[in-house]
Design goal:
Number of helices of chain A: 23
CATH superfamily of the largest domain in chain A: SLC41 divalent cation transporters, integral membrane domain
Structural class of chain A: mainly alpha
Largest interface: A-B, 117 and 118 residues
Order of helices and strands of chain A: HHHHHHHHHHHEHEEHHHEEHHHHHHHH
Helix content of chain A: 55-70%
Number of domains of chain A: 3
Shape of chain A: elongated
Oligomer: homodimer
């Protein structure tokens, strides 16, 4: 950050208040880079954000919308009239269009789609049915295709003509089709360089690698790993060209999924949260996860209630209960993170449960002994009772082994059960390790109670 | 996964054991897609992994190394002779080469670099000094550059000639230079299509957007957001062309950083951990973070020790200590995750501490009351004592507000202090909220002790 902090949001606010038109606002916004623009928008109140979007010309509003996270863009568009919203949506590229519309309620999305021109509306209705993390959901419908009989010169002339909107295209390939949509193959733009302008493109076309619209993110990742191309055509079962997925879109989708996973691991589920969203929505989503957690916590703590007599006899144990609970959570979460990472990389697959468990158990034994020793010594030093040290240290050591075993294997098991490991691993881990930790500490203590009093 | 699980690692192991040569192994490996290959490598013992790498021809070994995470690739190469390692390193693309070598100890890296041919060695020595997350660290030195006086035809002929290794290039641009390295501008390959073959490229060159080698990841991200180009040339202060950064490399670096952050948040610090790494290394790195945490935990729990009398009088409180500690951690971590996300997006900057705090406080009040009510009711129902419910519920409600306030603001404050919020936010958060939670619960209880007994 520059030390002279700029406040573009103040200027925008003033311009909105003084009723300045689309031109002045547009110029102000064009002067900001994307990070500053995003931050400025966040500093505005929701009302000012909406006023800004309405005051801009649709193309400028659309480019602003493309900078915002989809959920936030949808929030803003939701409150506009369907007609105004459609004006902006029309200016978005096909992939952004669908991303934003899928964040809206079905009725609101339908109202906006009804306001689009027929061709765009039909296209959106088709695209919106694909899962967002599939080739169909990631593809864009802006591509250049020509019939077999076109000549190299015709293609080149068309690509350079002013009538085609290639603003949205990063043209690396030209697709060759018959009957308007059936894909016959692909020509790299650079190969057009080396061709005779009078040649028919049907003569220089190469067979195209293709994917189906259902191809999931993982398979697309493997595909682009394997093939060094910038975009892949998506075709249906009859080889009809539906769109293209760019490597760039795939990489962006992978980044988004990994961001979404970090949010889910920390208990932000049900979608992206940004502090510009309404408070009740943020509270409700967070509470949904917290209230499940508090129930699990109460269940785990019920183990403590069963040992009230032991605790009353040796009140010092109460000090170590939260330590055992927290530290087991920490050790277990480390193992969860490594498993999530190995799942993402493909270095571990769901059937590797046993192998992963053996690898984790070794680390658990070493780290359990180290941590147990540390906490045991602390307990001994504090109360001058070596047996207390043994009980506390032993419980932590054993529970560390339990925690890393569960932490390492649970993500794989959840993936195998087709559940989302990012959401469920944490709560499952802490509930089981808490119960087990409390039980180990208190039952060990009750075994040697006379020596502790 | 296919239901008929394949075991390529078994086949590779058998082939290694029977001493089969580079050709057979190479064919087996070529038949695997990258995810299966990576998984197969992980299923081999470290010795077998090394044996596999040595048995392959250097180009095949290099393409295997490019599939592996850098830290793992470095582990394998480390144990080979510098001469053999150099044979593989020579076949890597310039950016991978530096990534792998920077993971090695300086002496080992130097020994390998000394075995490279002089030109490569000089290049690596230059590149290795750039920070990995800067344009210099991300750039590759494989690009096509030509003098102003070359004709379009000469450039095209050269690009299509067999002598140049364009395996590593994804050619979208040709750079125009004077005196071998001084950048004059850029020509898109597609623009060569539309040019007269006899023209000098100096006549059709456009000015190039450039970045300096020190440009950090965030600035590169803003750059590629702003400009729809596939690669940007990196030049020094004298406009000498040092290399190019592809959009793709940037997106991959961003994804890696976000992966690294999720590991750090969960307490895997000091680098990527994969279960193929030596146990002592994995244990030691995890313990480094755990042992700091256990000390912080002991400090937090010392608050409990100060209230032993209150606890002895109302042993039921011991059940609620871990619940308050866990739940505050959960609420706080949600706020941490949202702040980390907003920092990544640019929706929050370090100076927004106050704004973020106000936004979090509202959510904290709502969720604190909801959770406090829930836990308070549970406590009342369990012991039939409404005052116990008030104490427990009140402590959790207040501590939830503390937790989200700290969780939301600490990442911003750490970023401002130039500390890594991914590493330090969690431990700081839980220590403070644990202390505060224990204090709230036990001091509230001691105030109304007669009503609790």
């Amino acid at each position: 950050m520059d030390s002279t902090i700029r406040y573009p949001e103040k200027k925008i606010r003033e311009m909105l208040a003084s009723g300045l038109g689309a031109e002045e606002l547009g110029r102000e916004i064009d002067g900001l880079d994307s990070a500053d623009l995003l931050h400025a928008v966040y500093m505005l109140s929701p009302d000012d954000q909406r006023a800004l979007l309405s005051a801009l010309t649709p193309p400028r509003a659309a480019s602003l919308v493309e900078e915002l996270p989809d959920a936030h863009a949808a929030d803003l568009i939701e409150d506009m009239s369907a007609h105004d919203a459609a004006g902006i949506v029309e200016e978005l590229s096909s992939d952004h269009r669908v991303d934003v519309l899928s964040e809206l309620d079905k009725t609101e999305a339908d109202a906006i789609i009804a306001e689009l021109d027929d061709e765009d509306a039909d296209e959106v209705r088709e695209l919106i049915d694909y899962a967002p993390d599939s080739a169909g959901g990631l593809m864009m419908t802006e591509y250049a295709s020509y019939p077999m009989t076109a000549t190299v010169r015709e293609v080149v002339d068309d690509l350079t003509s002013e009538t085609v909107d290639y603003h949205l295209l990063t043209v690396h390939y030209v697709y060759v089709v018959v009957k308007a949509k059936k894909l016959k193959g692909v020509i790299r733009i650079r190969d057009l360089v080396f061709s005779d302008p009078k040649q028919k493109i049907g003569e220089i076309v190469s067979p195209a690698l293709v994917v189906s619209p259902e191809t999931p993110l993982e398979a697309l990742e493997a595909f682009f790993d394997e093939h060094d191309i910038a975009a892949v055509p998506v075709v249906d079962a009859r080889q009809m060209l539906l769109g293209i997925v760019r490597r760039r879109s795939l990489l962006e989708a992978l980044a988004e999924r990994s961001e979404a996973d970090s949010l889910k691991v920390a208990g932000i589920i049900g979608g992206d949260e940004l502090r510009s969203m309404p408070v009740w929505l943020r509270s409700r989503r967070r509470l949904a996860w917290l209230s499940i957690n508090i129930l699990l916590n109460i269940i785990a703590a019920s183990v403590i209630a069963a040992y009230e007599d032991t605790l009353t006899a040796v009140i010092a144990l109460a000090v170590f209960l939260p330590i055992v609970s927290d530290m087991s959570g920490c050790s277990g979460n480390q193992a969860v993170a490594v498993s999530m990472r190995e799942l993402t990389l493909g270095a571990a697959v769901p059937s590797d449960v046993l192998r992963v468990w053996r690898k984790e158990a070794v680390v658990g034994i070493i780290n359990g002994m180290a941590l147990g020793l540390l906490l045991g010594m602390a307990a001994w030093a504090w109360k001058g009772n070596p047996v207390l040290g043994l009980v506390v240290g032993g419980a932590l050591a054993l529970n560390t082994i339990v925690a890393v075993s569960i932490g390492g294997t649970v993500p794989l098991i959840l993936r195998r059960l087709k559940l989302d490991p990012a959401v469920a691993s944490g709560p499952l881990l802490t509930t089981v390790t808490d119960m087990c930790g409390f039980f180990l500490l208190l039952s060990l203590a009750s075994q040697v109670l006379p020596a502790l009093i």
